[in-house]
Amino acid sequence: MWVYVLIVVILAVVIAIGMLLYIRNIRKDDIKTQYVKLEGIQNLPFQDELVKVKNYNLHGEAQSLYSQWQSDWQSVLKHSLTEAQSDLDHAADDVEKFRFKDSREKTESANAKLEGVEHKYQELSGEIHQLITSNEEGERKYHEAERLYREAKRDVLANGHQFGEAQPSLEKLIETYEPELKTYEKQVNEGNYVTANKEIDGVHEELSILKENMDEIPLLIKEVQKDLPQQFQEVRFGCRDLKAEGYDLEHVKVEGKLSTLKGKLNLVEPLITRLELDEAREILDDINKQLDDMLELIEHEVKAKTKVDHEKDIVTDDLFMAKNMNYTLRTEIDYVKDQYHINETDIHRVQKFEHEIENMIEVYDEVITEIGKTTARYSEVLDNLDYIKDNIGEINGAQQQIQQYLVNLREDEAEARENSLLIQDRKEEIYRELLGSNLSSVPEKFLVMKNELDIDIKEINKYFQRRPLNVQYIKEKVNRAVILMNKYEQEAYEVLQEARLTEVMVQYGNRYRRDDADFNQMLTEAERLFRENRYKRALQIARKALEKVEPGAASRVEKEFDKQ
Known about the structure:
This protein has about 575 residues and is mainly α. It is built from 18 helices and no strands. The protein is flat and about 145 Å long. InterPro entries: EzrA. Negative regulator of FtsZ ring formation; modulates the frequency and position of FtsZ ring formation. Inhibits FtsZ ring formation at polar sites. Interacts either with FtsZ or with one of its binding partners to promote depolymerization.
């Protein structure tokens, strides 16, 4: 037994040793990876990055930055890499002694320091790249600013007449940029690239704006001296022509507004002369807006007249059609109300429409009076016409419905009378058919239904004598009688058909009665039910009996019966 225990112990020891050796190999691989990383960081080409800066004037700010970057990198290499090297060496010793926890902690510490060095490299390289990019952009803007300066100076000298009285101010402003351009050159020569780049940014932006303003100044001068005065004249003369054609434009106040705008316009040219272009643009925008508002009001009047000319006759026809129809309705209601019951709501609506139409006729008279004047404000005329048009359309639609309602009263009464006569005739005709049929007697339900119809027709005929007649009520009562009549007719037809078909089947089956006692008994039962007016049940028994003695015979008999 102890042998097996010994074997288990030996195996456990071997496995434990194997695990330790395996873990040690893994840890050694991790440490080797960090050594490779350390070597790679030591070989980072930071000096190659610094060499790029040496192409500049290493004075002033450039020298300070160069020294600082070099110092920072050397400091990182001296401290962080040395400490990382020490951590890795100690980690290697710990692994050999199977102190894996201590080894892992030192390896992680070394890795953190190496990542810090890498981050510092990226940071310093980024700063170097940013300086180089800024210098290149500054140099580009400097050359661009020089070009803008020369072009601006040349344009003022060659085309001074385009700038008017703003020429001296422009020349003076342009000359202020020459010292600033020289300042940039001086700062670059002294190695102060950061300061130089900031200054040239401002100079370049100002010269770009100056170029845009110089392109705009001739246009502003043209707008002030020619375009707007010409528009003022066109508006003034155009309004005079429209007044001569009969337009009332007093509400536009053309002369007063043009005088105000002209006063504002006189303020613009001095602003242009002083190169206060933002203020000049603001005033010009306000002038153009007010001018557009005036033109919009004038155009509204012109469009209003066109619409008035187009819609006046249409509104006239609609208005007087409404008046005539209202008179017709009132006359017809006075005549009809003794004969028929009329909704009080419709009577009040017609009276209300009469007052509304009279009010609209007054508005229409004002429209005609305004149009007949020497000058008319067509926008107000159009508002009145639109008011009439919107309301008269609704009134005409409502009055047509009321007119149709009055026409329907007579038609509905005539239809109800005709239907009541048809019910009377058809009721008697069906009853005669029941009496003349092969029925043993008329079933009681038909006597009841006929009696109900007699009572309804009597009440309907009596109600027709009333005045004023409630057509809706009598129409509904007649419709109910029609429904009862249809039911009476349908059920009578079904009973007659069942009775006749029963007789035919009994007659056909008589040939089997002598030879088949059961069949004879079933037909006898069907005859008994027939005599008791139970025709549907009698037909069912006769059909069933016939199918027993001759399958398919009942269906053939029924088909032959339907053909008759």
